[in-house]
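Much of what follows relies on a compact textual record of a protein's fold. An example makes this concrete, so a full record is given next.
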Amino acid sequence: MMSLDRFFARAELPAGLEDELRALAHEGTLVFVMRSAGWLNLSFIRWLVRRLGLATLGAAIGLGRVFRTLIGRRGTLGALRAAVGAHAPSLIFLRRPSVFHAKGIPGVDGGGDPFRVLCEMQQSGGRPLYLVPILYVWSRRPQRLKPSLLDLVLGSPEAPGTLATSIAFLRHYQRAFVRMGAPIALGDFLSAESKRGGAPGGATQGVGGAADLQLAARKVRGALYYHLSRETRAIVGPPFKSPRRVRDEVMRDRALQETITVEAERRARPAAEIARQAVRDVKEVAARMSPLFFEIIRPVVVWICTRLYQGIHLDEEGIAEVRHVANRGGLVLCPSHKSHMDYVILTLLFYEKGLLPPHVAAGINLAFWPFGAIARWCGGFFIRRSFKGDHLYSAVVRAYVKRLMRDGFPQEFFIEGGRSRTGKLAFPKTGLLAMEVDAWREGAGEDLFFVPVAIDYEKLPEGGSYARELGGGEKKKENVWSLLEARKILRTRHGRIYVQFDRPISLAELTGGRDRPLVIGDREGDAGRRAFVQSLANRIAYGINRASTITPVGLCAAALLSGTVAVTGAELAWRLGLLRRIAIEGGGRFPPVLAEGGLDPDAGGPISEALAVLRRDGLVDVRGAGDAATYGIPRARRAELDFFRNNVIHHFVAIAIIAAARGARSPAGVADDSRTLEADTRWLSRLLKLEFMYRVGARFETIFAETRQVMVKLDIDGDAAHAAPSRAEAFLSQMVVPYADAYRIAALTLTSWPGGDRRAFVRSALQKAGEEVAAGRIEPEAASKTTLENATTWLTAEGAFDSLGGPDNRDHSARLRVSASWRESRAAALVSDISRFRPLPPSAPR
């Protein structure tokens, strides 16, 4: 046992596996089932039953002649009967290694079938028999459709020979994985088969004659093989295909072929020429995932992550749920996107946790050498930022996505499109999401699970460049020189990374089945499909926000930025406590050190550490010490720190909007009744609908009433009869002021803008915002290019612009002018309406 412990104890056992197996052994008799016969799998099961404290393994059925000779009678069906009769655990192998493929093992000991023996014994009564499909994986080498020369020597990956087993195990046993499929209660299985076949009998006597028993045995074997195949594929993936074969399969897609025909007619070109263009597009898009390259580059990636970050905190329960649904259908990961490290982190975590790394959709701007080649080998595929009107390229991407889903590869794309420069989740994009939905509805997979993933950082390598871009600076184009400059980042530690998963969204459950029409409200057909996809995108985005981690840095930023003056340590601790109570009430996720730890900035712990990091980076200015210490933010650095507040702002925004509405001024004075408060809250929430992701599937009235109840419960007030906002409301309302100010600046710009395209309008608004910042009338974080772009989109939807080049004024290159009604009165009215929400001074604390 000690010698086996040295090798097998390093394997990662799923949480709860040992307790579950002990419970099953207490209720009945265990029969372990494994895919491939071999001495290593036999040794592992022998080690496992000893670790569980069970009786010695009584039988091992399906080994080759050599090993069957070594174990003697324990390799016979007689030994299986004896072991089951003595309630000792047994082992059955489904396949035996072969040079080109794995041979099935119909039976041994004179041609008998071990599963028929088990069915017969269960029929005769006695203790329940539990068939436990179990997998011990030490190699990630995928199976090939055509055996290679290496397979001639080592055997296939599905059932490797003894030499392959020995080599791979000695290389990888420290990173082995154990997976268990759903145990089959044989009595219940036979009873269900009896009812389906119409034979009389109870739970243990349903299957009657020899033919019934043989059929039941085959079905048991099939169910076990299905469980083990799904578990294996989730780890090592589907059979390996060459890039040429992938291209050929994508090109055979029916919809792509139809598009080629249509485009040939439309362009008056030969179909063969259009097809060659499609092949070039497939080459431009497709990944070339290489498991061997993963093994080579893994140590480098681990070193980089260790060098950059203090650690990665992973949601273990969440990834266990992802592993579970990966066996039930296709998987699409939808993470937040704040850094280029996002796809590196998820790919590494999946590989380390025994899951097949995803194919990751990336922008074509990242396909530069050598990064593009490295990314393709790691599963990256590249798509253009925009291909509106290019029907052929769109059909190629659709066909490729469908092929990935059909082959069973997990996928990953960022619902925001690009990286968030502001820190909060950008409004979701639906292009690639619609392709995934269409591929599933066309039968590419049994089910499709979208998994919202929140990746949060205590510090970002890109933080400085984001602040410059938000201030109007141009984004630097990615190239090999930017890759070389990134080595400077390795000199600095960037805190911790937090990876959290929200509940996977089943497309089959959400739609009721792929054959059901997609209907939202009274919208059907294409309109219903678009509305459904947008609703799904909102649901995913809300799930990302719900799963996000409230880091100490984010909490400190939210507490410090809500105001313009420095605060004392006592005031800061009060603000931190209020924010933590609000987040806990809303189900927010905290690191263990912050969930219940002290919040005094002078008392040590996570808050003191976060403030020390911010102070070292020049983002926080601390004056004095002890009880006399004050904490402020250099005005020039507010926009940079705002990124971290925006990481957590969604946890507080519902209360913050109501708090801002409580301080809203009307012609008659302060809001004086609940109806006025509700109306002001509704107006402000609609103004900022492109900034914040509100709860999906709930009406405004419901969210408003429930939020008011939370405010009363937490003593934030919320009673509209008071003449002024409370201390807590005045503090919280400051969170939405920068966004409201940005929209006010955009409305002010309308009154004097001479015309141009959307980019020109944003530049004019950004210039005006800079003037307001310089005059001290707004804070620097309000002069955000991204927020002003959102404000421009909002104004466009409200009809503020007339297009001079056609009806589509959403085109960024279209010439626009301010509509007459907005220039004459509506812009000024909007400025006045937004100005009502600038906060009043707080009342005395209550």
